[in-house]
UniProtKB/TrEMBL annotation:
Residues covered by region (Disordered): 180-202
Catalytic residue list: 158 (proton donor/acceptor), 162 (proton donor)
Complexes and interactors: Homotetramer.
Organism field: Halovivax cerinus
Catalytic activity: (S)-2,3,4,5-tetrahydrodipicolinate + NADP(+) + H2O = (2S,4S)-4-hydroxy-2,3,4,5-tetrahydrodipicolinate + NADPH + H(+); (S)-2,3,4,5-tetrahydrodipicolinate + NAD(+) + H2O = (2S,4S)-4-hydroxy-2,3,4,5-tetrahydrodipicolinate + NADH + H(+)
Record-annotated Dihydrodipicolinate reductase C-terminal domain positions: 132-266
SUPFAM superfamilies: Glyceraldehyde-3-phosphate dehydrogenase-like, C-terminal domain, NAD(P)-binding Rossmann-fold domains
UniProt-annotated binding residues for NAD(+): 20-25, 102-104, 126-129
Signal peptide: none
Domain Dihydrodipicolinate reductase N-terminal: 15-129
Gene Ontology, cellular component aspect: cytoplasm
Protein name as annotated: 4-hydroxy-tetrahydrodipicolinate reductase
Top-tier EC class: oxidoreductase
Location(s) in or outside the cell: Cytoplasm
Amino acid sequence: MTATASDDGVPGVLRLGVTGATGRMGREVLAAAAERPAVEVVFAVARSPDERVAETDVDPDADLDALAVEREPHAVVDFTAPNPATRYAAACADAGVPFVTGTTGFDASQREALRAASESTPLLHAANFSRGVAVLDHLVAEAVRRLPGYDVELVETHHNGKRDAPSGTANRLVETIETTRSTGDGAPERVHGRAGDAPREPDEIGVHSVRAGSIAGEHELLLAGDGEDVTLTHRAGDRRIFAAGALDAAAWLAGRDPGWYDFAEVIEA
Ligand SMILES: NC(=O)C1=CN([C@@H]2O[C@H](COP(=O)(O)OP(=O)(O)OC[C@H]3O[C@@H](n4cnc5c(N)ncnc54)[C@H](OP(=O)(O)O)[C@@H]3O)[C@@H](O)[C@H]2O)C=CC1
Ligand SMILES: O=C(O)C1=N[C@H](C(=O)O)C[C@H](O)C1
């Protein structure tokens, strides 16, 4: 095990580093940390550190390698974009600092780089840090298992600033459906949106992304049979839930052995 949050002479206080401090989520994490007496922000970095956020000085992200050593964080929380997140994970791996990332939209080689970092430091990635979505994932698996042959369509709706589509949460839910539904002949086919002469095939999983306004995040799964349908919906009313989940994950991850961890382990702890 690496140093724990209670090994630094300040029992119970989590020394936290934050990346992407100027982003929508970075700001939420810093605001949430300021409200937790058991969290001390020891640094915050951003690409454009031109202001203080939640009364915290923001340093350039080029300083992260040095800060991760000098400030002795117990964990770093990251909500940025795939390229910087992969770079920050490698820096934390070099310094042996536990890394929590909620960033989404990684490609295969970036996912591989995160896995490689987790060989040197504890790393927890969650596409969604809401506890409700963790429960939704279980409910989706159960519903799909109990309703074989029902058509599956997933709609995710987010604010107009979101870059990646489908959302990381939608991808995770589709993986759950694929795992539950896959047969020896392979996984069901994903169909992203529909246009033109495009009738539905029986075993498709339809995936649809909506971007509008300031919506924090909605995921709705429709399971439709012959004469009935079931919908499972999660709505995030506020980004604070994601920040709270990420801070819980950071406190849980601090001091663990290097490896790859899942948010479900935090919730079940
Ligand atoms: N797991 C979860 O529960 C949640 C995950 N997310 C995910 O978190 C990520 C961030 O979301 P959000 O906060 O809304 O996004 P924002 O665009 O508001 O913030 C992104 C942050 O990353 C920085 N950044 C972007 N590109 C680079 C780069 N190339 N190099 C250095 N820094 C960079 C931005 O810097 P700058 O300010 O200079 O642009 C900013 O600080 C997304 O992947 C999103 O899907 C979001 C909410 C919840
Ligand atoms: O970008 C967002 O805002 C969100 N992104 C995550 C995702 O891609 O699933 C989680 C949440 O839905 C908000």
